[in-house]
Amino acid sequence: MSHPGEFAMRRPSLPYVSRLTRIIRSFETPFARRQRRLAGRVAALRALDDAALAGLGLRRDQIIAHVFLGQATLR
Question: Tens of pLDDT along 5-34?
Fold first, then answer.
């Protein structure tokens, strides 16, 4: 509850955030787009448990090399 003299911070609505994200991404460079995609892939792989990673033929310490350098470096 707000106290007199304070203003309550409102979270932006989802459609507003979506529009803002689209505007920001319209100015994004190809490099920034690729970096965001690679960072998302790293995060997705890190979220997997060790058994799931093993199913993909990866160990936890190989995630970065796998995403950024490709599978050829894992041999």
Answer: 555 566 656 677 688 888 887 888 999 989
* CB-based burial label for 41 (10 Å; 0-12, 13-18, 19+): middle
What is the DSSP-derived secondary structure letter of residue 60? G
Asked if residue 62 lies in contact with residue 74, where contact means CB atoms within 8 angstroms, the answer is yes
Q: How many CB atoms are located within 10 Å of the residue 66 CB?
A: 20
Spatial separation of the C-alpha atoms in residues 68 and 63, rounded to whole Å: 9
Task: State the first-to-last Cα distance of the chain, in angstroms, to the nearest integer.
Answer: 59
User: What is the rounded CA–CA span in Å between residue 67 and residue 45?
Assistant: 9
pTM (two decimals): 0.61
